[in-house]
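Can anyone check this?
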Amino acid sequence: MLAAAVVVAVLAAATYLVRTTNEPDRAAAPRDTGLLFSQACQGPISMGQHDSCVEEVQRLLAKTGTKIGIDADFGPETLRRVTAFQVLAGLPVKGVVDDDTKRALYQGGVSMRSWTPAQVEKHIREVFPEEPDRAVAIAKCQSTLDPFWVLPNVDTSRNWGIFQISDRRLRELDGTPRRAFDPDWNIWAARELWRMHHGFRDDWPYCDQSFPRPPAPKATS
């Protein structure tokens, strides 16, 4: 009887060990914490919202190294930064702060530090020695020389980066939104489009028209 009782006890202990080893440790599982996961910020945070949830998003974006105003207002600037963050974090680009984006913001690990406007302008002038002033003016018109500038279009496509390379042009240049946020790649991509189309007019017509052209030389008698 004693031997049988020992066998039963050993089997029960083994069964318990297997069960507890295979079950997830709920106490050790990571939990979503922080204001964005509180009752006050349930659901996606999106354009037009103005509250402490938006302020928390802006504060977390600022910690990535990007320039953003912290005013609790989810306007165009915050939308651009959220979109850029999602691209850099490898998340679906939704333009709203869903649970995956909230989690990535709290986890950190995404750097949004980039070139200053002065660095951008200097490189544009180096890449476009033939028309440096016009190239800089067009880039300022397109993005204010902001490497993370994103502009949505009515057809749901987007334009990316310093020269606002469109989704269609990115495909033609074998690029991606992430590559378009690299200032060096974006400027050289614009150079390639300029070379292919013999100027700025095809890809940046409105900004090109706003830049004054030199007067035609006067005819000599």
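Reply from J.R.: I decoded it. DSSP finds ten helices and three strands in the chain.
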